[in-house]
Structures are given as C-alpha cells and as structure tokens.
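From the shared-data thread, chain only:
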Amino acid sequence: LFEQKNGASYNMYQKNIQQILELYNKGSNLKFVVIASCHSEECGEIFRQAGVEHVIDQLGPKIEDVAAIEFSRTFYGAVFNAQQISICKAFASAKETLNSKFSSEIADKY
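Structure, as tokens:
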C-alpha cells in the first residue's frame, strides 16, 4: 500500500514493483533502498530479489516515530557526509545509536 500525493492509498503489488525495477534499474547504480514502514520485510525481499545491493526494512510491529527519526537522521547523516562512509557502516552506526538511546530490541527491528 503506497500513499499518493493527495493522501489517498494506492495498492502496489509485487509484480508492479518488479516491473518498475526492471524498467528503471537496468544498468542503474541503485545501491540501497530504505523502506520506512512496519512489517516491511516482504517488500524488502522484492528489492533484494531485484538485485538491490542494500535493503533496509523494518521487522515486526510498529517502531516509535522518535526511534525511526533517530535511525534516519543517523543513517542518512552518515551516508551523505563528506567522508563517504559505506552503507554498511552507516547502517551499523544508526543501529548503534538506537541501541544506546533506546534499546537493543528496537535496534534489532532494522
């Protein structure tokens, strides 16, 4: 289920996502996808099967907004800083931040 610009919902199925990826990812350098949604592991698997190198999804039930914001702030801050840190190191840094500010239970949902 995706949200449209007007806020209405739009059903997006596995075959739709696969078609979009096949159309736009040929020869592309799509390195990572972050799916900011609870229970997003099935959607993440679609991107993995399409060959996306790094897929970050959320396992299980709702993650509090404050924790999701902190993860995103830390992850994207690391990815897009001038030192060009790797996706894996940025991910580890974001999880470490969640672990120290919240709990390992929350960090392990990523």
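DSSP finds five helices and four strands in the chain.
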